[in-house]
Structures are given as C-alpha cells and as structure tokens.
Amino acid sequence: MANPAATIARGLLPQFGFSVSVPQRPADIARRYWNRLAKAALRETLLFHWQEHLPKHFLPTARSRYNYKPRKQSWVFHKLKNYGTGTDLVLTGASRRRILGTFPDIVIGGAAEGGKKGLEGTMTVRFAWNEKVRAQQRKKYEARKRKSYERRPTAPRPKAEVTIADMKREIRATTVEERAALALKFKELLLAKMAEQRAWQADAQVLRRFGIQLEVPGT
After folding, report:
1. Taking CA atoms, which of 32, 54, 188, 202 is between 20 and 30 Å from 65?
2. What is the pLDDT of residue 18?
3. Dihedral (C-alpha) 137, 6, 58, 46: value to the nearest 10 degrees?
C-alpha cells in the first residue's frame, strides 16, 4: 500500500513522497471512478501523516525514534541557555508552528489503473526561515562560540554540523510502525470510498428509470 519514498526537495521545502500499490479494480467500478477514488484516498492518507506523525518529529524523543543526527553539545547548551529548549528541530518554535499549523501542499499524480506510471503523491511543508536568515544566525553563533573557546582552550571538540539537508531528512523520516499505519489508512479510506461509490451507483441506477440524472460525486 502506501510506501514513503525518499524524495529530495529543493531549497528549504521538505517533501514526503508516497508511491502506492493499488489493489485490482473491482469489475463494478469504472476505471475513471476508480482512479478518482484512489487519488482521494491517497490525499487523505498524506493528511493523516501530517496530522498524526509529523508532530512527533518535534518532541524530545524524536532523536531516538527517527535516528536524528547528533547535535553539537555547544549548540545544545546555547539553545538551552538562550531559548530554554534542547529539542532537535526546535529553536524558537516558529518552524514547528508553521509546519504543523499551515495546511501542506499536496500533489497527486499517476493513476491507479491505465496510466503511464503508478499512483503517487507528494506533500510539501515549509520551514519558517530561509537560508540567508539561518546563515546569519549561524555566523553569530560561531562568533560567540569562538570567544567561548578562547576562554576555554581545553574545551572538547564539537560534533559534526547539522545541515539543512539533514533537517529535511529528519522531518521526512518515518518508522516501520508509521509506514504500516499509512498502508492500513490508505486501505481503510479506499474501502470506504468504494462503498460510497457503490451506494451512489445504486441510487443513480434507480433514478435513471425515472429519467433523473444523478451528478457524479466529487465533480
């Protein structure tokens, strides 16, 4: 079913790429309706991931849960002293609020049946800052750190830097349990939409006997 795939996003836009293996189309549902149902189910699955899984990326337990890259101890101390938090991906909380509080951009492509490529979807979220702002913040931090090390020449060597690409990978990360939950959610949504489609088709068939054309759902 739903299988999160590593999709490299440009700039500062973390993206979640999902490719989906859709079950065989039932004979009583036309291909055009089947594709529409599958795309709607995939869109709602991506929203489910945004609502249920993304908030966990900004918790203190996220580093072990998603295998985040270790932060410099000097940077963690700086965050604790100046911002009151040592949580990864959280400084002022602005990006967390934007990512979790702003509706994501979702694009659904491909087809469940009859297309050149299979059904796939991409969800894009945004940080609250840009590369220029982050570079300025990092420059100020490095200047303060150099002064600190001048006073403490025996200070331990800091760990590797965490880049924007690292943070994008961390936000995209999923666990085995989450991937299983996404597969189950897609299946549940598709089955529910199939039931709605069949109910609509039954109603439409009855109404056609009386010369009444029922509007296609979702159009």
Report:
1. 188
2. 82
3. 130
